[in-house]
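Narrative of activities, Objective 1.

The group set out to show that a structural description can be obtained from nothing but a protein's sequence at a throughput compatible with the screening campaign. Below is one input-output pair from the validation batch, recorded exactly as produced.
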Amino acid sequence: MEISKIHVDKLNAGIGSTYEYLWSGIISGIIAGIVVALGQFGILGEKATANILIVLTLISSAMWFCFFRYFGVGCKGLKYGIGNKVMSIAYLILSIGIVNAVALAVANSSSLSIALSVASTVLGVIGTIIYVKLGLALRRRYEGELGVLGDNIIKSFLYTLGLIMGASLLLIPVVLIENSFLAIIFAILAVLMYSLPLILNYKMVWERMVDIIETGYFDMD
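Output recorded for this entry:
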């Protein structure tokens, strides 16, 4: 029996725009990656690297929290627990950010750092499961822009998983053949593959989430 889908193109979160939160979260994350690289090459000291990463981690998680929270507010009137799933993702992102920031602050305490790392991983797995369930629910129950978003969430998840696995395999030659031109090539390819999910998720998921929120600046008709 075919399920009757609900057509949704716009949502109302009652705010002007969510682009600021989206881009603040992305840029903070990119800068954090650069800081990690600078720390690895010894350009930044260990303490300075940790302190900067703590600030960037908290800023990034706060921005992503706001982004998903406002989308969750827009989803409040939807059926099938869509709003609750989005809100859960928002609070999990914030929790992971806080846990990771604390882990950076107590890096010298090995037992606590391990416990926090495990907690962060568990929260990440839970968040990923809810994210996939959100995509499946949107794809199964809705059509229009919201249905496309659900389909894109599933596709972006699968693409991201494949790219991360592929990039990880490319790092194997880097470890086996150190200090060679070929190893550098493999390392560059791995970095590019790790970067692709950011572009894919932006174009397929996050940008569409912004457009679906009714802000007065977008016309999806």
